[in-house]
Amino acid sequence: MSFSIGSKFFVGINLGWFEDKYGYDLGRSEFSDGPLWTYPPTASITANLAVPNIPQGQPYLSQHPEAIENYFAKVNGVNIVRLWLFEQLEGLVFTKDGNNNLSGIDPEFINNLVAVLDTANNHNIKVYLALFNSWDTNSSQPSGLDPSRIPKYQELFSARKQIILKIMQDPTDFCNNVLVPLANAIKDKPALFALDIMNEPESITEANMITQQQLKVFVEKVVQAISPSGIKVSVGCMRKNISMSFSSFVDFSDFHAYNNPNVPPPNSPPTTGAQARIGTYSPSDFSSKACILGECGYHPSSSPYDIAQETATLQDFLQSANSSGYAGALAWRYQDYKNPDGVLQTVLSFANTGPTIQDTGTVNATNGTTNSNTGTTNPTKKGCFIATAALDSEIHPHVQFLREYRDKVLLKSSHRKQFEKILDWYYSCSPPVAEAMNRDKNLKRVIKYMIVYPIVLSLKILVKLLGDELKD
């Protein structure tokens, strides 16, 4: 996974969940709403929905494995699909002692997720996995439910909400009993792109369910637990500034951007376009990490609804994200629009152009700057693409050393012009090499141990022995 200028700009789409099976597509749920819909609809429900109940039957994908191939065949041509995992606690196994503690993960869930990743790989598509959906803590009474069953719905909803908040306040059981086994099962799958710890966590903090500090601690602990697996991690935030606040301890940033879904107040300025909503990517905003738009487009809840704006707004977001220096953009679920084929085709057509990550002309995605007077790039600020790919971090001490050696030794020596020509050649050919390294772990390992480490060691010895004499 490379985020260097000139490498692939990731064009994707949100799957969210298969078909309309929110909460039971991949795995079974011990907090299922199935009892709420039993016939006759006015019959009393005796089960206690606030405790885990042994689920009956199989999850949707176990019964309909063909749905996996059908989906990926339809979106064939995109780079990334974002899939939600534990919505409404599906796939999670709990203790039956009345404490509702996490004890494991449903084997059927793992089997179906592996099938998803394998099928995605057959179509050369990466999968971005979102663990929790924060909106599951927001009460939304299901339509069509008999009024006599509303108290039972509230019982179920309250239990789900408290479990999610409990996990966020102390993720120890989640990390040990769910996250680590999950990572071990999928970490070597080539289609795995990254994990999104929580979809739009602001809905929880802004409702004062937990504090911003508790949220940060939760994210940090999950990152620490997943780090040994080598899986990349982010947080799909609702707001850019919140995404920026997490950037120092995730591998890349992610925020969501839509048009204004509601009618603006009287006498207010017109709704601004995508460029004004997302701004220009600046590495200083994101701790020198790349940033993607994990969701974007025309909001399905827009009012009044203009079907003609579905594809136009999405096209605006995709183009603006690319031209503004972001590393990728994922449209929302095409199934949720009135012109789903048009939305999907817009994504596929944009992906087909093969966009690359752009240098915005003001701030470069690898900590670089461009000279606004001449339009030429300052080579002292470009990235160490191959070392960054080998060491999986732009802030690794070895990468920082190489930058300092370049800036303080090579480009201050009496042979600066010759070194600038060499560096210009390096910057033109190294992004494809870095991209190949991120696709091939064996190549990355060879370059890391046979090239990067020896060069760093040799240069450190030279600096120790010769110091300022190297500039002569």
Written description of the protein model:
There is one protein chain. The longest helix has 26 residues, at 441-466. The chain has helices spanning 60-63, 66-74, 107-122, 150-169, 172-186, 202-205, 212-226, 240-246, 274-278, 309-323, 340-352, 385-391, 397-408, 416-439, 441-466; strands at 10-16, 80-84, 92-94, 102-105, 126-133, 192-199, 233-237, 253-258, 291-297, 328-331, 363-364, 368-369. It has 15 helices and 12 strands. It has 2 domains: 10-352, Glycosidases (TIM Barrel, Alpha-Beta Barrel), CATH 3.20.20.80; 378-471, no CATH class. Helix 8 links the parallel strand 7 (233-237) and strand 8. The protein is of the alpha/beta class and 472 residues long. Strands 1-2-5-6-7-8-9-10 form an 8-stranded parallel beta barrel, surrounded by 5 helices. A two-stranded antiparallel ribbon has the order 3-4. It is globular, with a radius of gyration of 24 Å. Helix content is 41%, strand content 13%. Mean pLDDT is 88; it is low at 265-270 and 362-381. Helix 12 packs parallel to helix 14.
